Amino acid sequence: MTSRNGSTSKTFAIGCEIDEKAIERINQQLLMLSQKDARNAMRRGLGKWSRFTKKTLEATAPFGRATATEYVRKAVRPNVHLKWSVITKVKGYSKGLVTWMAVGVKRIDGTYLTPHWYQGWVENGHAIKRATTQAEKILLKQRGERGKALNFVQVGYSRPRNWVKKWRPVLSAMAPQYVAPEVEKAIKESGLG
């Protein structure tokens, strides 16, 4: 889920969806428990899932250059890698029911201390551009280009890496495997099963 209100909180670029039948089975079991027991079971199960998810994404994240700083938008900035910024979140726990879970890159708007601003480039690919020479600017003007289009010329294309997208189905399918045992354990402890 991506923040639409421009807040400076942590937000997510890609959410994981779980099979509807698996969620229904877990929700039916959760409704057998008291709200407190259901909440604790969900918290334990999703906590285990999120730690596993975070480790998997950190291990497979593209690393980029190993330098301490990088030149970004005409300034030297700290080089904060995707693998150091993976976070997970469980949201929408309501009356013992699961609503959604998400995995993404920590985001702090208006800063370069997190790599959220280039995760989309890594996932979807991007054009590689360089500044135009004076001769190229003249040629672009003659072709009818105006404004910012005169300042940069595309010299290549970086292919999509699909770093999080390729893991989404696998990690989504594994979430019930972490949650269901905790819910069953809570049912046994409460004497219902």
Report on this model:
- By secondary structure, the protein is an alpha+beta fold.
- A hairpin with an 8-residue loop joins β4 (86-91) and β5 (100-105).
- Residues 1-14 have low confidence and may be disordered.
- It starts with 13 loop residues before the first strand and ends with a helix.
- It folds into two domains: 14-125 and 160-190, no CATH class; 127-158, no CATH class.
- The longest helix has 26 residues, at 35-60.
- Helices cover 41% and strands 19% of the residues.
- The protein has a three-stranded antiparallel beta sheet, with helices on one face. The protein has a two-stranded antiparallel ribbon with strand order 2-3.
Which shape, going by the Cα principal axes?
elongated
Count of discrete alpha- or pi-helical segments spanning 4 or more residues: 5
**Fraction of residues in β-strands:** 15-25%
Strand order of the largest sheet: 1-5-4
Oligomer class = single chain
Radius of gyration over alpha carbons?
22 Å
Structural class: alpha+beta
Mean pLDDT: 76
Largest beta-sheet details:
3 strands, antiparallel
Helical proportion, percent range: 40-55%
End-to-end span in angstroms? 36 Å
Order of helices and strands: EHHEEEEHEHEH
Overall tally of structural domains: 2
Low-confidence stretches: 1-14
SS elements, strand count: 7
